[in-house]
Write a structure and sequence with these properties.
Layout (H helix, E strand, L loop, with lengths): L5 H24 L9 H20 L3 H15 L2 H13 L3 H31 L1
Helix pairs in contact: 1-3, 2-3, 2-5, 4-5
Length: 126
């Protein structure tokens, strides 16, 4: 078993706290009723995926990737909340919107990662 350096653990911990606080703040700003469209959850997941695409192409430095990728963006994005939001929508009789939300989130997040990678690559070439 490999023991991680304290700096990496600290970076992930601090980043995770910051990312989680940002996500919580957006959920307070954009609340939704159970079964309603979860704007804040989709917003954090799509923007987080865009930023992880940028980060992936911007640096391979282990400390930055640990802090920003695993920490900040890992704490910021939330697949489990997206699944819970879809489940609650389905349980309240909104099965079709729940499926659309689930697939829409996956597609939007995938496209956001690709866009982030391409945007950074293009801006770095100029």
């Amino acid at each position: 078993m490999t023991i991680l350096p304290v700096r990496l653990l600290g970076a992930v911990t601090l980043g995770g706290a910051l990312g989680s606080l940002a996500r919580f703040g957006l959920s307070v700003l954009f609340p939704h009723p159970p079964g309603g469209f979860a704007v804040s959850t989709m917003l954090v997941n799509v923007t987080g995926c865009l930023l992880i695409g940028v980060l992936y192409t911007a640096t391979d430095h282990p400390l930055w990737r640990a802090f920003l990728g695993v920490g900040v963006l890992g704490g910021y994005t939330t697949y489990s909340t997206a699944v819970l939001d879809a489940l609650q929508a389905g349980q309240t009789g909104h099965a079709l919107p729940a499926l659309a939300y689930t697939f829409g989130t996956l597609v939007a997040c995938l496209l956001a990662v690709v866009a982030g990678m391409r945007l950074f690559t293009r801006s770095g070439e100029r």
